[in-house]
């Protein structure tokens, strides 16, 4: 018997009688009067920056400024580079700043969701030194339950919730920002 | 399966606590993590509702595990992921070795996977001449020191920054005596970036595998799983059969519980949802049993399979905090390890269910409501029944049971015991009496409660 058959047969033989699956519901969950304030509070508490903007003009200017300064900037919001998708770690390891649009933000935990298409390249949000996210205020949801109701996970090959910069406390529980991923995360709320 | 055991828990703990200052520090540090957990939990009004849902979802999943596993397999294959099945640790390691050999891989990075620790994958591959680079900072530290992780979430929690500094000075040529965690972490970042960028194959664990979609979720704070998985041309994810959850929406319960229980964070920095390999990439999943189906058949112990590996039970455990993870001589230490490991090897792990005060704090903090302390107590009974306790303990317990069931002799023994301890205290205060270790024997009352009651009941 193959390992597969053996495992499945033993599961069938050893599993207990079927018990019901609970019905999840948003009515039991916390909703926030001010989702923007909650999102900002939580994200700043875990090392992220939140900046409210009237429109994205300022972000465009910032991108242009850093490009002029000679920084390696990748922007998938205002421009499209077909080559980005196939770039490798050797190309992307020099990226100083990445600007990406997120689908939604979660007030309860300060995270933002990105689909693969918004990243341009799966590696980009992780390998860049500094990550900048543009998020529409109107997309903020209260909690993870609402977030999954809005997302279509199967429509993408890869997606991620990102909450703050990369971090570790593996040395004596001392918090250090910038473990392997981005050293900073800024969310522009528009 | 090889076992890390050289000493039993009590003997190893005795060595650990010799350094009193370090033991206190270990105790305080883990209690600090427990307090961060409490703070995060108290911020969520619906916490108990989430625990109840999580527990019910896991109970349901275990009661239909065969069907969910096949549904997951089918969906994942439709998404272009290759599925492998391993009955035990050796098969898991052999499958991994086969993938490495067939693709002529030499540069391998691995993010945290307690399953690969349980299977001793690194040791297995090392014997075949293959080196795996662990990329979680804590895991890299212990790997460079040729040690095992001492905690499933905080692998290097038994070490002080001076220890890390010495290790990095030796292996990564950092400045001697520079103990700054910021500096040391930066050195590891640069060192591991080179490994990531050149990696050909990335191994990751799996936090949750979704039957409905065939996708899986990996949670990290450092970003190391993603750095490897999105760089390498092959991604191999390793999961135990119990990682399955039925639907995507169930993630909304587990992702809210996991990080809060583990470290007090609202969510891990990265919760990565893998659905399909990227164009040109190969993605494999190895689904491992290694004793889990057997545990599923043990009615008293099956709900240990609900565990999501948050380690809240470690951080709260008074025994874990003051004995250190290595005393448990297994990949998963702490209270949850003490109810999982006797299933894998009852004889080698017979000491573990006794490494507990049965205070129940583990069960109280468990986000999926595993009755950990009750299972510890039940394992003790099974282990005694199967004859895996030391003869001294067995004889003492049998003697006590006999004494307690003979009231007259019990009263006589109490009286004479009190007389002996008053007049000849050295009979109790000596090295042969394990109760005297690190304690004074209590002052002996003149009278037993029984005698006092007889005298006073009619007053």
Which strand order do you get reading across the main beta sheet of chain A? 1-11-6-3-2
Top CATH class of the domain at 44-290 in chain B: Alpha Beta
User: CATH homologous superfamily name of chain A?
Assistant: NagB/RpiA/CoA transferase-like
Main sheet properties of chain A: 5 strands, parallel
Unreliable stretches of chain B (pLDDT < 50, length at least 5) are none
Residues in helix, % of chain B: 40-55%
Break the fold down into its secondary structure elements and pairings.
The complex is a heterodimer of chains A (190) and B (459).
Chain A: H1 3-14, H2 35-45, E1 49-52, H3 57-68, E2 73-75, H4 89-92, E3 97-101, E4 104-106, E5 111-115, H5 116-119, H6 124-127, E6 130-135, E7 140-141, H7 144-150, E8 158-162, E9 167-168, E10 176-177, E11 184-189
Parallel strand pairs in A: 1-11, 2-3, 3-6, 4-7, 6-11
Antiparallel strand pairs in A: 4-5, 5-8, 9-10
Chain B: H1 9-16, H2 20-42, H3 47-62, H4 65-78, E1 82-86, H5 89-102, E2 108-110, H6 114-118, H7 121-127, E3 132-134, H8 137-144, H9 161-172, H10 181-198, E4 201-204, E5 208-210, E6 216-220, H11 224-229, E7 234-240, E8 244-245, H12 251-262, E9 270-274, E10 282-288, H13 292-296, H14 312-316, H15 318-321, H16 334-344, H17 361-365, H18 372-385, H19 391-404, H20 407-423, H21 449-456
Parallel strand pairs in B: 1-10, 2-3, 2-4, 4-7, 5-8, 7-10
Antiparallel strand pairs in B: 5-6, 6-9
Helix pairs in contact in B: 3-12, 9-10, 16-18
